[in-house]
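[Meeting: bench + compute handoff]

Bench side (C.D.) handed over the final construct sequence. Compute side (W.E.) agreed to return the predicted structure before the next meeting so the bench team could plan truncations. Sequence as handed over:
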Amino acid sequence: MKTNFLKIDHMKNMGNYKKIMIGLFLSLGFTACSDDEKIPEPIHEEELITTMEIVLSPQDFGEVVTLSYRDLDGDGPGEPIIENGVLMANATYFGEIILLNETVEPAEDISLEIEEEGADHQFFFHNDFGAETSYKDQDENANPIGLLFELKTNTPGTGSFQVILRHEPDKTAPGVKEGNIENAGGTTDISVNFEVEVQ
């Protein structure tokens, strides 16, 4: 009988121990939840892009061509200033995109942020004068960004060269890695149409 009492006492003690431990875990859980609620989530603020410059350097010979777009008042009444360009036919150009916020002094280089957050950004290119574009840079997941690219012209002609920057595109969607914007999703940070002559 004595042994039975010891077993019963032991079981009671184990039951009390379990209750204490459960209570301790629950209180820690509630504390953790309340702490999480007090910590504000980081907010990603979109940078203001007032200026896009595209520097096209010919691979073999010829002059460097710079396409530029400036809109210092954003949605204000002022019209953006766009500088178009003339490219050589049957030539290969190495392209570099520079994005700036020129409402601050000195101007802020947004391209650096795009490069750092490459997994969340991708440029898309579209033209109707027969040129071919290909990506020359990658994010940490080996997916394209587009700050650096190659452009190959063909026969002489004129047309538009559209450059679009998407924020948080789905780079795993069909065709997106190859530059097809159709399945990319995300939001557009900036989109510019340049008029280009190929001669």
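W.E. noted at the follow-up: The mean pLDDT is 84. C.D. will use this when planning the next construct.
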